[in-house]
Write a structure and sequence with these properties.
The chain is about 40% helix and about 25% strand. It is α+β, with helices and mostly antiparallel strands. The chain folds into two domains: about 45 residues, GTP cyclohydrolase I, N-terminal domain (GTP Cyclohydrolase I, Chain A, domain 1, Orthogonal Bundle); about 130 residues, GTP Cyclohydrolase I, domain 2 (2-Layer Sandwich), CATH 3.30.1130. It has a five-stranded mixed sheet with strand order 6-3-4-7-8, sandwiched between helices. Strands 1-2-5 form a three-stranded antiparallel sheet. The radius of gyration is 19 Å and the shape is globular. Bound molecules: guanosine-5'-triphosphate and zinc ion. Zinc ion binds next to loops.
C-alpha cells in the first residue's frame, strides 16, 4: 500500500504546522532559484563583498540552489516520500524503535543548523512500514525552516497517517547552532523534545519501554 500523507491538508499547512502561504507552490523550483539568487547577490553586495571576485561570483546561485533543492527541499511537495506499508502478516505486536536517525534541519528564526538525532517508535495496528521510510519522513520534515517542537510533531502525525495507528512516538535531541555559535554562545547545551501519542502517552509501561530502548545517554558528542 502507498500513502501520500501530504494530501492531508491539516498535516501540511494546517494550524500548528509549517506556516506556508497559499501560493507556496505556484512558482517552479527554477523560478524560486532565480529570485533567491538575485536577492542573495544583493545581500552579499550590501555586506561589501566584491561580487566580481572569482570565488564569490557564483555563490548567490549556489546558495539559491542549496536552499530550494537541498536544505529546504522539504518545502517541495514532490519531495514528499511515498510511504509503502506492508501488512503485518507475521503479527509482530511489540513496539518497533528506529533509533539515532540523523536530523539536519535549520532553525526558522536564524536560518542556522539544528543537528541531532531522532528516535521514533510505533506499535503496528495491522500495517508495518519499511524502516528507511521512517528516516525519509524525518528527513523530509527536517528540510524546512523549523522549530524543533513542530518537527517532532510533524514526524509523529505523518506516521500516524501512514500507519493508521495512534501509537507513535518521537524524541529528538539536537544542538541549535543559533544557541551554540552566536547569541548566548553556549556550546554545551542541547534541546530534547518528545511527542508521545496513543499508548505511548496513556500507558506508562509502553512509555517506559520506549524510554528504556532510547536510553538517557546523549548521542550528540
Ligand atoms: N522554542 C524554540 N525556540 C527556538 C528554536 N530554535 C531557536 N529558538 C529560539 O528562538 C528565539 C528567538 O528569539 P529572539 O529574541 O527573537 O532572537 P535573538 O535576539 O536572536 O535571540 P538570542 O538567540 O537570545 O540572541 C531564541 O531564543 C532561540 O534560541 C526551536 O526549535 N524552538
Ligand atoms: Zn535560531
Amino acid at each position: 500500500m502507498s500513502k501520500n500523507f501530504d494530501n492531508d491538508d491539516d498535516l501540511f499547512t494546517g494550524k500548528g504546522y509549517t506556516p506556508l502561504r497559499d501560493d507556496a507552490f505556484e512558482k517552479s523550483p527554477e523560478e524560486k532559484i532565480e529570485i533567491i539568487q538575485k536577492h542573495f547577490h544583493e545581500i552579499m553586495e550590501t555586506l561589501g563583498m566584491d561580487m566580481t571576485d572569482d570565488s564569490l561570483k557564483d555563490s548567490p546561485r549556489r546558495v539559491a540552489k542549496m536552499y530550494v533543492n537541498e536544505i529546504f527541499g522539504g518545502l517541495l511537495p514532490e519531495n514528499n516520500p511515498r510511504i509503502s506499508t506492508f501488512s503485518n502478516k507475521y503479527k509482530y505486536r511489540q513496539m518497533l524503535v528506529e533509533k539515532d536517525i540523523t536530523v539536519y534541519s535549520f532553525c526558522e528564526h536564524h536560518f542556522l543548523p539544528i543537528i541531532g538525532r531522532a528516535h521514533v517508535a510505533y506499535i503496528s495496528n495491522g500495517e508495518v512500514i519499511g524502516l528507511s521510510k521512517i528516516n525519509r519522513i524525518v528527513d523530509y520534515y527536517a528540510k524546512r525552516p523549523q522549530v524543533q517542537e513542530r518537527l517532532t510533531m510533524q514526524i509523529v502525525e505523518a506516521l500516524k497517517v501512514a500507519l493508521g495507528t495512534k501509537d507513535v512516538a518521537c524524541i529528538i535531541e539536537a544542538k541549535h547552532l543559533c544557541v551554540n555559535c552566536r547569541g548566548i554562545k553556549d556550546t554545551a547545551s542541547s534541546t530534547t523534545t518528545a511527542e508521545l501519542s496513543g499508548l505511548f502517552r496513556t500507558n506508562p509501561i509502553t512509555r517506559q519501554e520506549f524510554l528504556h530502548y532510547v536510553g538517557s545517554r546523549s548521542n550528540l558528542d
